[in-house]
From TrEMBL:
Protein name: LysR family transcriptional regulator
Keywords: DNA-binding, Transcription, Transcription regulation
Superkingdom assignment: Bacteria
Keyword S-adenosyl-L-methionine carried by entry: no
Length: 280
C-alpha cells in the first residue's frame, strides 16, 4: 500500500472527532466537498469504509475507530514536536498508573516545569508497562514489587506504606482494625482486603482503580486501603482518618523505568532526578 498522505489524515481526524464533515471542514478551513473527497480517497486507498454516512452526520465504522485512535496519537506527537521547535521545549512522555497520575503527579507537574522550563511533561495513564520508545514512552513509573524490564534501568523511588482510611463519621460507626466489623471494604484491583480479611467477600465493594476506592471512601461509603502518598492531602485536611497500617511486604514500592545508556544530560535523567527528590 502506498504511504498515506497527511492532508487526508488531518481531514479524517477532524471528522472523527466532530462526527460531522461540515464541522471538520470549518476547523480545517476547507469546503465540505474537499473534506468528503479526501476521506473518500483515504477509504479507497485503505480498501474499506471508515464512516457510516447518516442523515445528520457520520459514525465511525470498526475500521474507522481503529484508525482514529492511531491517527490521533500520531498527530498529537507531530504537533508536540512542532511546538517544541517553536518554543524550545521538549516534551517527555511519561507512562504512570492512573491513580498515581490523578492523586499525585498531575498536581506536581507545575513544580517540575517551573524547575525545568525547557521541558514539558505529557502523562499517559496506563495499567501495564508500555514498551519504552523515544518520544512515545520515554519513561514509566509503576507501583508494586520490583518489575523486571529487559534492557531498561529500574530504580526504586520510594517504598509504599499502605493505610486503611475512612471519613471520621464512617469510622465512628463501624468496628475497629483489623476486623472492621459492619464496614463496607472498598477494594481496588490489588485485592488487599481479600488478602487481609479472607472470607469477607460479601462486605467488599470492588473497583478497578485505587483512585475510585479512595473517592468512595471520601464519600463516606466505606474503608479503603491505599498508598499513603495518594491520601496525604485528605488526611492532612481531616477529610479522611487513618485507621490501620497493614503489612504488605518490603519490596512494594514506586519504581522508575527508563532506557539504559542515556547521556547524563538527557531530559529523562533530569526527570528521574526531580521525581526521586520529590518522593524521597
Amino acid at each position: 500500500m502506498p504511504r498515506l498522505r497527511l492532508s487526508p489524515i488531518r481531514a479524517f481526524d477532524a471528522a472523527a472527532r466532530h462526527g460531522n464533515f461540515r464541522l471538520a471542514a470549518e476547523e480545517l478551513n476547507l469546503t465540505h466537498g474537499a473534506v468528503a473527497q479526501q476521506i473518500r480517497a483515504l477509504e479507497d486507498q485503505i480498501g474499506q469504509p471508515l464512516f457510516e454516512r447518516l442523515p445528520r452526520g457520520v459514525v465511525l465504522t470498526a475500521a474507522g475507530a481503529h484508525l482514529a485512535k492511531a491517527t490521533r496519537s500520531a498527530l498529537e506527537l507531530m504537533d508536540q514536536a512542532v511546538d517544541a521547535l517553536e518554543t524550545g521545549q521538549k516534551t517527555l512522555q511519561i507512562s504512570v498508573p492512573p491513580s498515581f497520575a490523578a492523586r499525585w503527579l498531575v498536581a506536581a507537574i507545575p513544580e517540575f516545569e517551573a524547575a525545568h522550563p525547557d521541558l514539558r511533561l505529557a502523562v499517559s495513564a496506563d495499567v501495564k508497562v508500555q514498551p519504552l520508545r523515544r518520544g512515545i514512552v520515554d519513561a514509566a513509573i509503576r507501583m508494586g514489587p520490583r518489575p523486571e524490564v529487559e534492557g531498561a534501568v529500574v530504580t526504586r523511588l520510594c517504598p509504599v506504606e499502605f493505610v486503611a482510611v475512612a471519613t471520621p463519621d464512617y469510622a465512628a460507626r463501624v468496628g475497629g482494625a483489623p476486623g472492621f466489623e459492619g464496614a463496607v471494604l472498598l477494594q481496588d484491583a490489588h485485592g488487599y482486603w481479600d488478602r487481609f480479611l479472607p472470607g469477607r467477600g460479601r462486605d467488599i465493594r470492588r473497583y478497578n482503580y485505587t483512585v475510585l476506592a479512595i473517592d468512595a471512601a471520601m464519600e463516606g461509603q466505606g474503608v479503603a486501603i491505599a498508598p499513603r502518598l495518594l491520601v496525604e492531602k485528605p488526611l492532612r485536611r481531616g477529610d479522611l482518618r487513618e485507621l490501620w497500617l497493614p503489612e504488605t511486604g518490603r519490596d512494594i514500592g514506586y519504581y522508575l523505568i527508563h532506557p539504559a545508556n542515556l547521556h547524563r544530560a538527557d531530559p529523562v535523567l533530569r526527570f528521574a532526578d526531580w521525581i526521586s527528590g520529590a518522593l524521597s
